[in-house]
């Protein structure tokens, strides 16, 4: 009888390099398992610390006095200021440090409130019904349809466009541009990614400059007008306003787009759980949380230490990058028994798909509301959902998903 050897520190370094070298692997979970086996707080040969355990990742994310690792990584490029995609990203809420982060987040939270999200429920339901009806028509002849093109992209884009007061007909183009801009968010990208992100950011800022001018001339009762008013009150400068609008638009669709695509594929791959959800809609709240945990579309976040810290018994010095592997934490067997199994009634506590601490994603409630309405209607409308080709993978560090997901739908 043979037993598998415990991975070595060198193997952990090699595994981490696979994560940090584009393209992002289609299946990162063996890499996470290697890191967890060696050390849940792994000091790599690069000097970067990688956290793969749930408790360790959560502890880091909740530390109030660490800085944005993404900001530090972007500014390591001597020419970062010459790239509009990086400038806009470094002005966005997610990369800011205290006190600017608290100031901008507070303003965003003031206009992106739970009550405003709740008011979106009728609009969310209307958009769901429209898009499912279109899927019924497009799939009637048994021809494959693309879930990303017809549902995962247009649904959340329509919802965030409604919230911002943007014309829905502009949604697809702005989605494509925002998706290209987001290629630089993780700090792990190619020269081609950077060029595409710059071109996208240039076009996006031109588009939203026109929108801002129109809103200033004729404000309305929407999120965009509220943000523009905050700038008029001196709470945001022009670059911060633009960066916040760009980020809210991108964040408003990215999580839900990836959740829908990865969630549909997960249900196809776990037909017993799909059948279970169809039969019992009372599990919808836990089913949505389990899809968020299991699909692991939000892969990582990073921090820069501002003082010596200790996590998981490991001392980490000041001034180093610490990589929090969120999707590894979401599959940590110490927190989630049998972590690779999709269990739509699982109740093992909170996942980290929306991060934690001061950078917790306050748009998570919108994504949950969208998913809780869409998935039950989708699986009730179509009694047969099958993969009809090879999915197109969106393989970048930080936020993964699919660019296409061909399926056949039966009723």
Automatic annotation (TrEMBL):
InterPro entries: Cyt_P450 (IPR001128), Cyt_P450_B (IPR002397), Cyt_P450_CS (IPR017972), Cyt_P450_sf (IPR036396). Signal peptide: none annotated. The chain crosses the membrane at residues 241-268. The keyword Iron applies. Keywords: Heme, Iron, Membrane, Metal-binding, Monooxygenase, Oxidoreductase, Transmembrane, Transmembrane helix. GO terms for molecular function: heme binding; iron ion binding; monooxygenase activity; oxidoreductase activity, acting on paired donors, with incorporation or reduction of molecular oxygen. SUPFAM superfamilies: Cytochrome P450. Belongs to the cytochrome P450 family. This is p450 monooxygenase. It comes from Streptomyces sp. DSM 21069.
